[in-house]
Amino acid sequence: MENLVKKFLKDKYGIQAEIQQLEGYSVINYKVSVKGESKYLLKLTGNLQEKAFLKIQDLIYIHLKGLEDYSFPQTVFGLDGKHIYLFTDNEGNQYLAHMLSYIKGSFLAKDEKSSELLQNLGKFLGTVNKHLLNFNHPVIQARHFKWDLQYFLEFYSNPDYVKDPEKRKLIEYYLQQFKENVLPVLPGLRKSTIHSDANDWNVLSNGKKITGIIDFGDVVFSPSINELAIAVSYMGLGSEDPLSNISEVIKGYHQKFPIEEKELNILYYLIAARLCTSICQSTKSSLKDPDNKYISIQEEQIWDLLIKWIQISPDKARIIFYKVCNLKNETRRLKASLYENRIKYVGKSLSVSYKDPITMERAAFQYMFDKDGKTYVDCVNNIMHVGHCHPKVVHAGQTQMAKLNTNTRYLYDELNNYAKGITSRFPYPLNKVFFVNSGSAASDLALRLARNFTNKKDMIVLDHGYHGNTASTIEASPYKFNSKGGDGPEDYIHIAPIPDGYHGRYKSADANAGHKYAELIRKYLNDKNAGFICEPIVGCGGQVMLPPGYLKEIYSMVREQGGLCISDEVQTGFGRVGTHFWGYEIHNVIPDIVILGKPIGNGHPIGAVITTDEIANAFDNGMEFFSSFGGNPVSCAIGNAVLEVIDEEKLQQNALDVGNYLINELSKLRNKYEIIGSVRGSGLYLGIELVNDLHSLQPATKEAVKLVNQLKEKGFLLSTDGPYNNVIKIKPPLCFTCKNAEDLISAISDSLKVMDK
Ligand code: PMP
Description:
The chain is an alpha+beta fold. The protein is 40% helix and 17% strand. It is built from 25 helices and 28 strands.
């Protein structure tokens, strides 16, 4: 090939030259030196369709000559005055060959990114963009190019070639955000001819100033702001604080070419779109050419930046961008008036978390963002099981909502598919499902099923248990009826003591605790009893793990006497406990009725009851069971998507791994800080109990509340619960990572250090 190229140079340009092939993405580049001096760049383009475009590039170079402070390549013409030739290699492959002047200088990629240099990059790009405002050509305007950010959705909407589901989720998330936030404003953005690839291996610098730019192969007619979005994406790579680097470039750019507000408003998403485009392109290219290292050279850095980017609130980014451009951000609503307005119209019995409540604006995966752009790591919302705004779940809901939403009085595939999907997660004989639209409605139905089947009314419940907000479920919830405002138990409700191995009369160290606690319910077993209901880890009771053997003994006692056993899996289901998909499995039992809620719809209101054929058939007694929303096609589509994500992203395994890491690290903290009395739970369903005295176990309620408020200030959302409100609950979305856990542990440790003093 080399000899062929040299001969070509001699024939067409009349030069005797040395050549060196340079790394390239899709074009073959040769550095051409004459008498030891780098003089030209020969470019061989495999895409023969590009001829018209190459011709126009020459016009751009001529236009840019006007910017005398900077260097741009210039076309080198052949002996016959032409500048594009057909070149054929030894294997008969054809290329368009053209030659450019070689611009000396070092790449910006090699420089330390000082504020000055970053601002100068901005100034350079602003200057170039402004100068190109009056360069228009129909060939460029007609270009429909895969790297052009305005076509992000069109080219990348199905990134199924990105095999890692966690990574694909990030791309799909930003595709959806682009559709929601960028697409509607795209038509109103000013457009111009832009270089469109000012990455730091194309920009030349002398360490302080930008001296020029090469490689005009990506030139497009696109929203002008895309120039900036593309360039700054690379300035964030490898940086601890990408937003700060990026802001410097924006500041410089704005000085030369003022950015419009509507452009700044979407810049965050355009940057994300560029990062995703790079990932999609490099993934596609490495599938075709697995040995090309140049392709994946930046991929890891881009992933790192995307993972950082998702943790930055788009509002925070926008606020900072406005600030560096000296633009006023729109006035914000005051938190106090939000609260006042709320209680004007909404019942006050709805509580608000934290002394200083948070006004939430948006969320992504395990992160939540408030109105001022502060990021919180969500360590407590187990409803957002697979992560806030998971693109697969959002997509399932959006598409089904736009197609059909009706009720179970019609036949439709979605119901059958989901009913099959959810029941297949249970062992025989649990093979029937009823759909409702909340955990409370599911608990209510579970009680009805048990009472109908047994023709009895009494229920045994666990102390401090909670099963819902309806009249019948409040009756089954000591957490409510025995607390402030409660009326105490009905005479058909019997409260078994919570088998708490920490506070209770039998401690977890006692190998027989399970049996001893189980024996305590014997006195409630009689011919009036319809059954027993509990959670496999008692959440509102303070994340209390049931002792080994406890449920097994109780289930057999209850059944022997004719009652049914109900497991409330609203909190513990769907892989959260890590070791198993359902909490009851920890105890090696199979319930007669299972209650599902919260995580089942990842925030979409779904509840379900799973039971046996026999119990379901007995319920078919002539009275119709109908739930207006239960089992509607939208809910079913969402429920199915949640199940798929749990499997694809191996979230149960992640719950186990990250949960074990947390238990381990929290146990180390317990050895260090006396206030931590107990660390317990399974998977990502954990509790930290704070006590003031390790002997009397006096609850450290005030301290627990204080700690949770302090952690909020540090950007971690948690809550307290338990009979003494001194147990801090950790139950994050299951995509919570070890890095999130590490950050949480260090924040807890920092707060306890101060509290200890
Ligand atoms: N059961 C348990 C164990 C719960 O934690 C809850 C909600 N906290 C419910 C039932 C009721 O669910 P929902 O709020 O969806 O009605």
